[in-house]
Amino acid sequence: MTELDDLRAAARAWVADNFPRELAGRAPVMGQRDLDDTAALEAWKTRLCAKGWGVPTWPVEYGGGGLSPAGAKVIREEIRKAGGWNPIGWSMGVRMFGPTLLEYGTEAQKQRHLPSIARGETRWCQGYSEPGAGSDLASLQTRAQDAGDHFVVNGQKIWTSGAQYADWCFCLVRTDPTRKHEGISFLMIDMGSPGIEVRPIQLISGSSPFCETFFTDVRVPKENLLGPLNGGWTVGKRLLQYERQRSDDAPARPGEARPLNEVAVEILGLDAAGCLADPDLRPRLTEHLMDRRLLRLTMDRAAADAKGAGPSAATSILKNVSSVVNQTRAELLLEIYGLGGLGWEGEDFDPDALANTREWLSGKASTIYAGSYEIQNNIISKRILALPDPASAAA
Ligand SMILES: Cc1cc2nc3c(=O)[nH]c(=O)nc-3n(C[C@H](O)[C@H](O)[C@H](O)COP(=O)(O)OP(=O)(O)OC[C@H]3O[C@@H](n4cnc5c(N)ncnc54)[C@H](O)[C@@H]3O)c2cc1C
After folding, report:
1. All domains of the chain, ordered by start, with CATH?
2. pLDDT digit string (tens) for 43-71?
3. pLDDT digits (tens, 9 = 90+) for 332-341
4. Backbone dihedral region of 10: left (phi > 0), alpha (psi from -120 to 50 degrees) or beta?
5. Which residues line ligand 1 (CB under 6 A)?
């Protein structure tokens, strides 16, 4: 028996004893966060966090499980086999900010923030984009002025996902207006500070997943600077690599428990030769299933190759490919459901089909957020293929 086999046996026994069975198979789908059974969910969250398995690869002293990526995968697999999921594993604190803090934070900063993220208690939001700074993020203008023992922050962020629920914001601010990339710093801002106003942006669907966030004379203690003064661009870019990293910790997608070909056969049936009854859909479905399998294998290989060193510029490739694979999945599922796949609400529609309509629409955003598809292609051409930068080539 290898160490991983021992871990698997221990994890299986622990999950059998601790995962509330009534939650089995009820992982929230993308965009649908809350379960009504909150007592069972809270119990599961508490037990998982006490074990350190909400953030299995973080060091034990900060509330993690101290496991290798391979060990974390074993835990994930055993929880999945029981129909469970990691209820804190998909937050911005866990996926983006925590790993960046582990790399760049002082000991005091780590002690202060990591354990509460690991317990799923504090929520973080991302203050990067501004009305005049999206793809060209380094044009950001939110200003942080030195006022002795603190900074005074003024400006506006936009598309701040979940800002209305967040306790803290990791924020890129301008500390030197005379320099572009070298004039940016990375601040941790308490969202309860006086002078912060959050205005949710209401979408046509009625939901408000993101906000405008205004800062007016907000005092931020100097100890909340992460990394060097004017060195925030490096820290911020590293965080983006964590954001772009894809993992199978993501909440389930509609119908994900069953392979797409099974759903297709159930709904469309088979022809006389025993093949899927829609000859046009058949090759596209096969191609998608192969792409999806290849993506999973490549993600595993990239994680193994990294040997715990974390993500690299290669995450831009995985981000683009996984966004397109997931968008294709939602398109195919929509086609398979036919008219039944066009419902928005109501009991006449299959719940999985309804969830897929929303996933199909919300999934369009995946080639925009965390840096658009085109910007990832620019990074791939510059940082991986070492092609000349079009901007400097033209100069
Ligand atoms: C669902 C969602 C959630 C988000 N959450 C957050 C969040 O929590 N916090 C946050 O800070 N931001 C968030 N964002 C903002 C996101 O990061 C930006 O939308 C994104 O970086 C693109 O910026 P932009 O919208 O200003 O588009 P623009 O930069 O104006 O781009 C418009 C188009 O031009 C293309 N383009 C621009 N420059 C180039 C170039 N050099 N080469 C080739 N093509 C180019 C882009 O690819 C895009 O297609 C979120 C966005 C979405 C959709």
Report:
1. 3-89 (no CATH), 124-232 (2.40.110.10), 253-394 (1.20.140.10)
2. 999 999 999 999 999 999 999 999 998 89
3. 999 999 988 8
4. alpha
5. 125-129, 134-135, 159-161, 210, 365, 368-369, 371-372, 374-375, 378
